[in-house]
Amino acid sequence: MTKRDTLARRDTVADPSEAVDQLSPVGTGAIWRLPVTVCRINQFLGERTAGALLERAIAAAGDASKPSMIRDREVVPDVRRSRSCQDFAAPELLAAIDEVLEAVEHTLGVSCRYTEPHYSLNLHNDGDFYRPHQDTSAEFAPRRLLTFVYYLHRTPRPFDGGELRVFDAAMPLHTGTTGKWAERTWRDWAPEHDSIVFFRPTAWHEVRPVSCPSKQRGDSRFAVNGWLCSPDPAHRGNDASR
């Protein structure tokens, strides 16, 4: 049977959608895999400033740290296991972010003018992790415009794992097609001391499990996690700044 005969037979199929499926050169299960843009800067603060910030983080990791929450109000150990310090102050980090913000905005296609920072110190020790999630829970979705994660740890690195895994965006080529989570593709970013990453809060990401043989707090994977957020609608009358 010739190719022309085959096409002629397809034209007689009773179900038009079936005919489209057979004639289409792209399968109905086809899915785009689109890499998510991540901006990473190494040696962000410099050895002296990063060292001082690490010592401050280790000191804050004692009684001031509490189990990390999801959606800022629930402790769910099966989803997130780590500890956080909500009152940790890192003005030198914010100043450095402000210096590179214009380039980051351009690269990620986002405007952070008139935003305000919200951040906390998070530490992952032996067995800790954070399952795949987005930084766009219902109450924060309209406000969080940019995610940043700044990494700190003792050197040589006293733990293994803890990579930031950023999943590629998956978009179906045909309406109704949904990809399976297990088929997602990704890129891992190592939590290098004095490095920072920026990405859009809509990106799916996770913290891979950490192995810390000493189990000492000071040997943890430290990170300052935060967002640049649009002003709270409840305080629109106030002037906001970066």
From TrEMBL:
Give me the ranges of the annotated region Disordered. Answer: 1-20
Highest taxon, organism lineage:
Bacteria
Give the protein's cofactors. Answer: L-ascorbate
Keyword Ligase recorded = no
Enumerate the UniProt keywords alphabetically.
Answer: Dioxygenase, Iron, Metal-binding, Oxidoreductase, Vitamin C
Looking at the UniProt entry, the stretches that span the membrane are none
Domain Fe2OG dioxygenase, which positions?
Answer: 113-230
- Entry keyword annotation includes Coiled coil: no
List the biased-composition ranges (Basic and acidic residues). 1-13
InterPro entries xref list: HIF_prolyl_hydroxylases, Oxoglu/Fe-dep_dioxygenase_dom, Pro_4_hyd_alph, Pro_4_hyd_alph_FE2OG_OXY
Pfam (any one):
2OG-FeII_Oxy_3
Q: Name the Gene3D superfamilies on file.
A: q2cbj1_9rhob like domain
UniProt name for this protein:
2OG-Fe(II) oxygenase
Specify the species: Streptomyces celluloflavus
